Amino acid sequence: MSGSVRFVMGGRVVEVRGVSPTTTVLDWLRANGRCGSKEGCAEGDCGACTVVLGERTPDGEAGPPVRYRAVNACILFLPMIDGKLLLTVEDLADEDGDLHPVQQALLEANASQCGFCTPGFAMALFALYHAGAAPDDPAIHDALAGNLCRCTGYRPILEAARRMRPHIDVTDRFQRSEAGILALLRSVEREGTLEVSGQGGTFLAPRTVADLAALYARHPDATLVAGATDVGLWVTKGHRSLPVLIHLEPVAELHRVTEAADHLDIGAAATYAALLPSLDRHLPAFAALVRRIGAAQVRNSGTLGGNVANGSPIGDSMPALLALDAELVLNRDGVRRVVPLDGFYTGYRTSVLQAGEFVERIRIPFPDPGERFAVWKVSKRRDQDISAVCAAFRLSLDDAGGVTGFRAGYGGMAAIPARARAAEAAVIGRPWTAQTAAAAAEALSLDFSPITDARASSDFRAAVARNLLLRFHRYTTGEEAYALEDVHG
Ligand SMILES: Cc1cc2nc3c(=O)[nH]c(=O)nc-3n(C[C@H](O)[C@H](O)[C@H](O)COP(=O)(O)OP(=O)(O)OC[C@H]3O[C@@H](n4cnc5c(N)ncnc54)[C@H](O)[C@@H]3O)c2cc1C
Ligand code: FES
Ligand code: FES
User: Where are the domains of the chain?
Assistant: First the structure.
């Protein structure tokens, strides 16, 4: 074994050696006497394990000196918190036992019964409390959508979230002790690649794209891990052993998001949460879709690059990326190539990525002025649910109302996220009428033969796919409004 993971917890630097790199933060905490964080599902769904990570805002970047984000400890590998502040429910009350305002609010609102979910709610609320402005109800709902409570009922919990507002900035000792936290965080910052190993596993975390490319070329069988919101489950649910992991999050270049004149250029390790401001500015419909991916804890860790590379047929970003003609910049040992997303997938969860090659960036062209773009995700629940069908459309018309361009990207309809080429062909050069849209909807049966599974039947999927295309037509003609909050479909 070699190397150690260093992070800040309980007001000091903690150094851990020799544990398996796929030990989850939750398992490590509970094995080391911090049992406040609970395990409900071990797959990122229930929020009982919610902890908060704190990081120093990089020099020159806007924002508070320390950024806090809620994450699910059950699918986070311990070495992934190297260099960070780890806060658990044990850290909230101060040394005298005085409750944090978030805990006080939960107490006053009678927002706990059995208490199993309460530490997770407290930590999700803590992150919200430190997010800045006093949250309104939509922000509260958004922050808590990833936390389940079986017995209290959500009304008192929401009431607690509203109550904590007046306390902001008044009694919070985390803000008072910020200088100390920053000094500790500086002391665990790392220059070069982190290398830790233990119990037969190795974890490598390079800092630059060049180092990442060289490392992955040397270890082409390694598993890349960005936010681990997919990979984490391979371990906790799939019981897979992952002998060598290469972590992408510490590579600063992979977080860069550039807003060019005609496209967004997104580093593959940018989290959904980090992407949202740029998407809100340029592609609000896509932003609304991203807000329907998982819940806050998942969006605080999960990345667009991970979604694309994972290649799940029900991955939500790909239908939109296909409709927008997105391209991927791939890197293999420093040699780059650009491939359209349409053509990236070769089969169920397989792609053109070669051994040692990774997704470095994702380029999303903006629709031309006058083009219409919309995306819908149809799932059983609004929050924290997997799509039955996801569909995205982009349309351009000439002055006479004839279709000059049409892209239809679908998820949940085939083994890979895919364009509906027959439906697209059915409308090109035609007048954009209800009849044309209906012909395109019929042509979808040539594009897809969806399967029946636990989420939806084949017939349901086929009907939803048709109806979404017809809905897009009604949206473009003004017969139906497209409210961003209706992206749920
Ligand atoms: C509770 C929960 C809810 C979820 N809800 C949704 C949802 O609503 N919609 C949805 O689409 N997904 C959802 N997911 C799945 C997951 O969050 C997304 O797929 C996410 O985008 C994965 O990103 P990540 O950074 O966590 O990937 P990781 O888990 O770190 O990696 C995923 C895969 O991509 C590979 N990889 C990662 N980055 C790169 C790269 N740059 N180059 C090459 N390979 C790479 C990894 O090796 C791995 O194979 C959910 C997951 C959970 C746990
Ligand atoms: S234990 Fe359920 S989200 Fe972690
Ligand atoms: S208080 Fe019992 S699960 Fe929430």
Answer: 1-189, 190-310+325-366, 371-489
